[in-house]
Specification:
- This protein has a six-stranded mixed beta sheet.
- It is globular.
- Helices cover 32% and strands 42% of the residues.
- By secondary structure, it is α+β, with helices and mostly antiparallel strands.
- The chain has one domain: Nuclear Transport Factor 2, Chain: A, CATH 3.10.450.50.
């Protein structure tokens, strides 16, 4: 594949990955990762390895899916970056999280996924009296 073809494939992979979260398609999501993958939501500790990521992903199977709206996305032969808004329900409260995501891609799979966002809206859903 040419670098442009690889970038297009990576762009499509991440778009399908995001859509799978809305469908709670755990098998597809987990299948997108390399064995040595790392997921790091920057406000929290990283999750290392496909097995640990799989356990984390499966923890969402009974959680109401949200809407993950990608506003902008760019892709290269080894990195995809997007800006999106995740609209989810936590503890019975609607939460809106503006997120910047960075995906490192290796051989058609996600090797690293980092997300940058403010955790405050999620924390507010769990504060006393909520």
């Amino acid at each position: 594949m040419t670098p442009d073809e690889t970038a297009a494939a990576n762009n499509q992979l991440v778009r399908e990955f995001i859509a799978a979260w809305e469908q709670r398609d755990s098998d597809f999501i987990i299948g997108c990762f390399t064995e040595d993958a790392v997921y790091h939501s920057m406000p929290l500790s990283p999750i290392v390895g496909k097995e640990a990521i799989a356990e984390w992903v499966r923890g969402f199977e009974d959680v109401q899916p949200g809407r993950l709206e990608v506003h902008h996305q760019i892709a290269t032969a080894d990195v995809v970056m997007n800006e999106r808004t995740d609209s989810i329900v936590l503890n019975g409260h609607p939460v809106t999280l503006p997120i910047a995501g960075v995906f490192e891609i290796h051989d058609g799979r996600i090797r690293a996924w980092r997300e940058y966002f403010d955790l405050t809206p999620a924390k507010e859903a769990y504060r006393p009296g909520s």
